[in-house]
Specification:
By secondary structure, the chain is α/β, with parallel strands linked by helices. It has 8 helices and 25 strands. It folds into 3 domains: about 190 residues, FAD/NAD(P)-binding domain (3-Layer(bba) Sandwich); about 130 residues, 3-Layer(bba) Sandwich (FAD/NAD(P)-binding domain); about 90 residues, no CATH class. The strands form 6 sheets. Strands 1, 2, 3, 4, 5, 6 and 17 form a 7-stranded mixed beta sheet that branches. A 5-stranded parallel beta sheet has the order 8-15-9-10-11. Helix 1 crosses helix 7, helix 3 packs parallel to helix 4 and helix 4 runs parallel beside helix 5.
Length: about 425
């Protein structure tokens, strides 16, 4: 059995950033385990630009962004294994992995960072009636076909769901010569970033059909078309207004699910709202020494935010290994009126040296509303926002001064208020 101070499961942007941060804090005995044949994760198939604007102050493609961190990993001589799948993990931080090169092997870690990312929700989770013909792909699968394998999944496209991957693939398929009939979205708002709606749909005259859904799939061997219909306020299709769109390909961009099978095996407590772990300010879970960051924790908008969070987890894991992290009395972070969820779920004030950012998503589109932060029943901050959308992550800052002023606070709540 091998032993490491820190094992990071996942070699995507979260895992790479966490490894770099831990190494910079003096942790040397680190191992990254990645199931794909190279480091970088999903970034390797994201050949469009727009990455790194916040972190590096320049526009990079996904592979370029990944390569920045791979070079750091190599320069710091951080060990990693690719083509390696972790198949078991327990709360004692003993993991089992398998690879072609090493067979089945076990590793005992002193600390673990979960950075497995997320997966796409498939057709089976949607209960769309119709035939089981070919030509139906998740948007990420289509992206891999086009950008990695050089294969076109189809020529006449309908996209269900307006998540960022779906929006980006609408543009990508158009640039490769396909015709994208429409992006169909069940909700009355897009789940993607505003910039992607503008750059990927508006710039190419691709319709975004809000409050619509696919009601039937038609085709014997290959997809021949789909029926779409508007939905009412209860999201029930209005079948009298149903219409048929001929197409040979349906791409699904209907949400991402954190890959938390290993987390469950380690008895990590998961949030019913995000499907990711419930963590504290250092991204430590309820299991001592097991941390989580990136899309395995909650789905992010930007890879820059994933990296920022991975730095938090990497630094906190290093402090844990040095015996510098403490679990004191905790302050609950509550997603209150108008807020879907907030991360982190708990705060240990004793571990906070500087300011702390809380990330959150709103439930609905809100215009000219205020985001307020309450320490117990005392409103501490109150800032007006021109627009808040569920598709874009928001943050509020909690300062060390606020925490010291409200030293007996039991709960911090975030609310959306009209005034």
């Amino acid at each position: 059995m091998q032993e490491f101070d820190l094992v990071i499961i996942g070699g995507g942007p979260a895992g790479l950033g966490a490894a770099v941060a831990a190494s910079e804090q003096g942790i040397k005995n680190i191992l990254i385990l990645e199931r794909e044949n190279k480091l970088g994760g999903i970034l390797n198939q994201c050949i469009h630009n727009g990455f790194g604007l916040q972190l590096f102050k320049e526009e990079l493609t996904g592979p370029e962004y990944a390569q920045r961190f791979i070079k750091m990993i190599e320069s710091k001589e951080i060990r990693y294994k690719t083509n390696t799948m972790v198949i078991d993990l327990n709360r004692d931080k003993l993991l089992t992995a398998v690879s072609k090169a090493d067979g089945i092997f076990t590793i005992q870690a002193k600390a673990i960072i979960l950075a497995m990312g997320c997966r796409e929700r498939p057709r089976g989770a949607l209960n769309i009636p119709g035939t089981r013909c070919s030509g139906i792909f998740t948007a990420g699968t289509a992206q891999k076909f086009v950008n990695i394998k050089g294969m076109m999944p189809g020529k006449n496209i309908v996209i269900l769901g307006s998540g960022d991957i779906g929006l980006i693939m609408a543009r990508r398929m158009t640039l490769e010569g396909a015709h994208v009939n429409a992006v169909v979205e069940l909700m009355p708002y897009s789940a993607g970033l505003t910039r992607n709606i503008v750059q990927c749909l508006d710039d190419y005259d691709i319709p975004l059909m809000l409050s619509h859904t696919v009601t039937n799939i038609v085709g014997k061997d290959r997809l021949e078309g789909v029926f779409i219909a508007p939905v009412d306020e209860n999201r029930k299709p209005i079948l009298e207004m149903e219409k048929f769109i001929p197409c040979d390909t349906l791409l699904l961009s209907v949400g991402l699910l954190p890959e938390n099978e290993l987390s469950k095996k380690a008895s990590v407590k998961l949030s019913p709202l995000t499907s990711g772990a419930e963590v504290d300010e250092g991204r430590e879970t309820n299991i001592d020494g097991i941390f989580a960051c990136g899309n395995v924790l909650h789905v992010h908008d930007l890879v820059d935010h994933v990296t920022e969070e991975s730095y938090i987890a990497g630094k906190a894991a290093a402090k844990f290994l040095k015996g510098l992290r403490k679990r004191s009395y905790v302050i609950d972070v509550i997603a209150s009126e108008g807020i879907r969820y907030a991360v982190p779920k708990y705060i240990n004030p004793v571990n906070i040296e500087k300011d702390l950012e809380l990330s959150f998503r709103v439930k609905d589109i809100c215009k000219d509303h205020y985001v307020s932060v309450y320490f117990d029943n005392a409103r501490v901050t109150h800032h007006k926002k021109k627009i808040l959308t569920p598709g874009e992550m928001q943050t509020v800052k909690i300062t060390s001064e606020m925490l010291s002023t409200h030293s007996h606070c039991r709960a911090i709540s975030i609310r959306v208020e009209k005034e």
